[in-house]
Batch of 2 targets.
Target 1
Amino acid sequence: MVSMILISTVAILVAIVGCAVIWRLDAQRAEEIRLVRPERARPALGASDDPGPASSPAP
């Protein structure tokens, strides 16, 4: 009976510590993403500023 209580207590402590570590790593990554300047985004397909080849007729 004592071993079952000990194992259960250790399992609960490991779960709590594991959740805290994962939560802290997630918060740290979110802070890193917030602080890093994003690179220039690629334009979506069809949203390019490039008018196309120079030999194409103007509308």
Target 2
Amino acid sequence: MNTKNILLGKSAFNAERETFLPINTDSEKKSLPQEGKADGRHNLPDSQALLFGTVEQDIAQKIAQTAQLTHSALSEHFGGYSARLLPIVQTWDPLALIQQIQDIPGRMKTSLDNMFGAFKARYAIMEPAWRSAKKAYETFRQEYGLIRPPDYLPIKSIILWFFCIIVAEASINATLLWELTGILIAFGQTILITTVNVLFGAALVGLCFRYKNHDSWQHQLPVLLCIPVMLAVLTFNLGVGHYRDALVEYQYQAQEERRQINQNWDDADPNPEPGILDYTIKAMASMKASPVNIKSILSGLLIIVGIGFFGFATQKWYSMFDPYPGYRKRALALEAKHKDYKELVETSRNGLDKEIADAKARVIDEHQKVITMRTQHSALIGQAETLQNSYAKWVLVLEKTQNHLLAVYRDSNQQARSEPAPKHFNNELAIDDQFTKPPEFSPPDLHNTEQVVAATSSIGDKIQDISDNIWQQFNLLASMQPESDA
């Protein structure tokens, strides 16, 4: 219903907007003067009449019908209010709500105790292992007077460094061999040479030489391995130089044979093409005869390049790892134990936080439900009271409308009469008492709402006490820290 007014004889209550519409009496105001004059000319109603005439009765009947329909519509609307309040009241059990709210801290405490118990059990396993790793780390530092953390490059940097060293040496060596063997064979051979120099010889010498920093001679024994390895690398690189000399010599011989074949084709009996084994045997024989007798400058340069890269790689192997062997291992062990412990602490802390937050949220939710129910209950009652007051005012306006219409009819009637008007023309007509009072609205009551609200407030303090206690116990165990370095 979206009209701004209502015709006489219909309900004036707009339930959608909860307003009372004004009565539209335009048609009555137009017809009543004519009807009054028509009845007046016939002196109707009679001067001695005690009852209303037909037109007056029709006005009173339409007004009464409007009041009755509006009263019924408002009463029906109040019935909808009661239906909306009924679920609230039916679920309202203060004692049950208070008990439900008071159970939240107990359930939270049980869950927190279980989570803390699981944390303690895992902590009991981790703590001794962490203590042992920490003790080994600190003992090593005290033994060598170390106040710095282990110094070493990340594994990615180490790989990148040695990849570059290998490629550089292999490329240089390949340029000294490819004219004799071909680029592919030369590069493959030099990769082998570089691997021996950089990844085998330099690694053993560089890593083992760090053991000189130990105090006890038992721990320094790996340093003795450096001497034979260095001699082996030197011998290997001399052998590489003799190997290149062998390649040069065989190449010279091959050229002489081709020259002879060209001079005397019929008598030529060429030797088969020599292989790597032949070059190696030739180089070993040359090494035995005179290890340092290198015939070619380029072969000597090949030896210098190999030994130079061996020395550079040895220095890198020494510097890329901490000069105190075992320091990094102990530091990594301590770091791993502390990382596992931190993950346990963070996981447990997050679990405790979530449980406490959930408990607080449940209390807030229950508290909000109580407030919402109380607010809805009060709001509906307030709306009902407002409508009752509005109805009472509307009925007064309706009564004035009724008497105004009667006055319009009576004035025109009196002007047309030749006899005196009935005495009741001087009296106003009141609306029936059963419609002047608004419909009754007796909503069901919500008992002890303040008691429930108070219970939710006190539970928050109890939850806080429980959480403070569990955090105090937790923080006593969650105190392991990694070793700090000056």
